[in-house]
Amino acid sequence: MKTLRLEITEEGISKAGEIIRKGGLVAFPTETVYGLGADALNADAVRAVYAAKGRPSDNPMIVHIAEVEDVYDLATEVNESTKKLMEAFWPGPVTFVLPKKSIVPDATTGGLGTVAVRLPASETARKVIAASERPIAAPSANISGKPSPTTAEDVLEDMDGRIDAVLMGEACGVGIESTVIDCTGETPVILRPGFVTAEMVSEILGKECAIDPHLLEKPSEILDPAEGSADADFKPKSPGMKYKHYSPEARVRIVEGDPAPYKKEAEEEGIRTAVLDYKGDTGEAARRFFADLRELDRQGIELILVCAIEEKGLGFSIMNRMLKSAGYDVIN
Question: From the CB of residue 95, how many other CB atoms can be counted at a distance below 10 Å?
Fold first, then answer.
């Protein structure tokens, strides 16, 4: 398959919308990471996304919409708390898990009775959705398990020849995927942390926002997406809850403290080693982490030592990505 490179022009966006409308796959920029878009209501198109990514079919997709009111085409119920959060954070890097309408195929939701919906802040993304005249299922545009792509070049590194087109847009400003909030119960529950934090949600609602327990503990088993859904008992409500994620070719280790002795030891053993230290700057860490992992792979680095960040606010979201990229390998 020849993967088209489309410019961010009226013509390019129109072409992207046409490809998606006809069942094809197009990668496009959002404010978080690049998404791999398909018609969310076309089960065959969604299955093609799973195939292109090597993504297990029980890993639900996030459905992207162009206008707030489009959520009512997909969800049977939007409670008052969710409406408040939508007013506060949409358009933006927040996804809401809601009871789904039958129009949304099981292929899109991983067989669940819920649908995850997001209205992106990226004007380019909303234009692509509008041009397609469809809600767009769009996980990150990478091979499952690898670092999420934040540039068009990252996408092509993984997807060239696998998908119909890439919109050659800007680098993503946020740099980590959206916060996913389960809004099906009385208390909202964060299933995947992101740029919008639990503290921010609680401030809007004036009540506690819960954190899914899976985010607070090391998993007993880290499943490789290439091996499929080995754990049939756990049905993830959000991407990022079940499988190995964000891993470069290099080994990644999280360091709590000074990385210099570990770098020296590795280099004395002939291991090409690099250190990522964001000096506690959570915004920079969010923007750069995935891109840095990919760049160090390109340089042939074999070991990446990542300095831990305080797990508070946005730092909790970033450490979630860092720990997953390292397979929870932490040097104390």
Answer: 29
- Taking the C-alpha atoms of residue 325 and residue 328, their distance in angstroms, rounded to an integer, is 8
From residue 114, give the alpha-carbon distance in Å to each of 88, 231, 242, 256. Answer: 22, 20, 17, 38
Q: What is the C-alpha separation between 15 and 9, in angstroms, rounded?
A: 10
DSSP, res 146: S
Whole-model pTM: value is 0.91
106 alpha carbon, distance to own chain's centre: 20
pLDDT range class, residue 234, cuts 50, 70, 90: very low
SS3 annotation, 113-129: CEEEEECCCCHHHHHHH
How far apart, in whole angstroms, are the C-alpha atoms of residue 140 and residue 34?
6
Q: Is 217 helix (H, G, I), strand (E, B) or coil?
A: coil
Overall size of the chain counted in residues: 332
Burial class (CB in 10 A: 0-12, 13-18, 19+), 283: middle
In the chain, count H helices and then E strands. 10, 15
Burial of 125 (0-12, 13-18, 19+ CB in 10 A): buried
Which residue carries 């754990």 as its tokens? 231
Residues whose CB is less than 8 angstroms from the CB of residue 12 and which lie 6 or more positions away in sequence, other chains included: 6, 167
Q: Is the dihedral of CA 48, 223, 27, 296 positive or negative?
A: negative
CB atoms within 10 A of CB 211: 14
Q: Which residues contact 295 (CB under 8 A, 6 or more apart)?
A: none
Question: The sheet that has 251-255: what strands, in order across it?
Answer: 273-276, 303-307, 251-255, 330-331
Q: What is the pLDDT of residues 55-95, one digit of tens each?
A: 777 789 999 999 999 999 999 999 999 999 999 999 999 99
Burial grade of 279 (CB within 10 A; 0-12, 13-18, 19 or more): exposed
Contact 63, 108 (CB under 8 A): yes
